[in-house]
Amino acid sequence: MNVALITIGDEVLIGQIINGNAAWIADVVTRIGCRVVEHCTVADQATQLTQTLDRLRDTCDVLLLTGGLGPTHDDITKPVLADYFNDVLVESDEWMSHLHIWMAARGREVTQRNAGQALVPSTARVLSNPIGTAPGILFERDDVIVVAMPGVPDEMKGIMRDHVVPLLEDRIREQGAECTQYYTMLTTGIAESSLADLIGEPSEFLGSSTLAFLPNYQGVRLRIGVIAVDHHDRERERMRIASILRERAGRFIFGHDDQTLSEVVGLHLKERNETIAVAESCTGGLLGAAFTDVPGSSAWFHGGVLTYTNEAKVRELGVSPSDLNNVGAVSEEVAYQMANGVRMKFGTTYGIGITGVAGPDGGSKDKPVGTVWISVVGPVDHITIKHSFGNNRRINRERSVGAALGMLWKIVR
After folding, report:
1. What is the DSSP string of 16-68?
2. Burial level of 62, CB count in 10 A (0-12/13-18/19+)?
3. Where do the structural domains in the chain lie, given as residue ranges?
């Protein structure tokens, strides 16, 4: 089933807004077996949208549109679709009722402009949007499904989950056609080239399936693509390939699909009834943010301290002033004392200390930009490692967080 994504809006076209919607939709529909053949962004102009619909309807089974469903003059999607399908806009009693309830809950009244959002093409199916004022709309013409959704990410995602994904899954089953589904295994603590050497020649075990290596700041993702008609056949093939990968690289595999390293670390800590606190310098709170991104993290993450200056390290964590003078803040000794100090301060099982030169300035011959010391201290043992990253401040901070999480994962897994 071929799918094209059409994003409507000048703000996306000129780069004022990053098109996260297209990435999210593409990932979701690919996972259920669709084939995304094109992403395109068009201006708030009727002619451009009409020409794009004409072109893509010839090659695609599904067109998923986002944007242009709001109440202002530049929101063109509904009238363009109505004209395109020789339809007219009519008021939906159901959606007008939703608007009154939605506005009343916020102490507002439905204005004439708001009421325009209850106008929908007469032959379209209205897709409910409980958290917004613009419904999704769906047309089916000549075996092509056309869906228009709001550009607001949370509203679009709700319509996708509630309406679009179930519909596409049903159509895929009905067609009985061969499709590709992707599964991802997540690794940490090993470089892409080393992981490839460890796994060996993929063609020896993949058959008709595929394997891609996708590096990021926390590790390398292994994306398995399995091709088959039947879901059970795809699942058996996925399990076969996953078993081989675990046999060869299992000590580096921490999770799968949408899991994050902080989430997996948290699961292990919770299972072990253990806790963590963090002391950060060059990462500026990013490690603590990674932990608090995980729902329920208060069960195992007790807090953190941001000690950017030497004075703060001494005052908050008990770091030795003489060590700061003799070996400097970016050192094995200070990283260990930060980790141990925050562990004692919060009374946790583990403490993590991060200190480094994020850049682009501040480096020296002995400690160039990208030098980061990370220490993990526990009740029995500790590990302190020097990392040498690059010259990009943002990337160095993100890689430091990934490295710290990887070190903790190796201890608690």
Report:
1. SS--HHHHHHHHHHHHTT-EEEEEEEE-S-HHHHHHHHHHHHTT-SEEEEES-
2. buried
3. 2-175, 179-256, 261-412
Tell me the C-alpha distance between 367 and 354, whole Å.
15
Q: CA–CA separation, 69 vs 82, rounded Å?
A: 13
Domains 2-175 and 261-412 share a fold: no
Residue owning tokens 């200190």: 355
User: Which helix (DSSP H) or strand (DSSP E) does residue 221 occupy?
Assistant: strand 219-228
Query: CA-to-CA distance for 117 and 136, rounded, in angstroms?
Result: 11
User: Is the pLDDT assigned to residue 166 strictly greater than 90?
Assistant: yes
Does domain 261-412 bear CATH number 3.90.950.20? yes
The helix or strand, by DSSP H or E, that contains position 268, with its residue range, turns out to be: helix 261-271
- Asked: is 179-256 a CATH 3.30.70.1060 domain? The reply is no
> CA-based angle 214:224:1, to the nearest 5?
110
282 CB burial (10 A radius; 0-12, 13-18, 19+): buried
pLDDT at residue 231, rounded to an integer: 81
Check whether 170 has a pLDDT greater than 90: yes
Q: How confident is the model at residue 175 (pLDDT cuts 50, 70, 90)?
A: confident
Largest CA distance in the chain: 80
Q: Is residue 93 a contact partner of residue 176, using CB atoms and an 8 Å limit?
A: no
Q: How far is residue 243's CA from residue 220's CA, in Å, rounded to a whole number?
A: 17
Output DSSP code: residue 228. E
Query: Tokens 């608690």, residue?
Result: 412
**How far is 386 from 279, CA to CA, in rounded Å?**
16
Mean pLDDT in residue range 250-269: 97
| β partners of residue 298 | none
One CATH from 3.40.50.2300, 3.40.980.10, 3.40.50.2000, 3.60.15.10 for 2-175: 3.40.980.10
- Note the pLDDT of residue 159: 98
Q: What is the DSSP letter of 258?
A: T
User: CA–CA distance from 171 to each of 1, 48, 185, 226 (Å)?
Assistant: 9, 29, 28, 19
Residue tagged 């009985």 (tokens)? 176
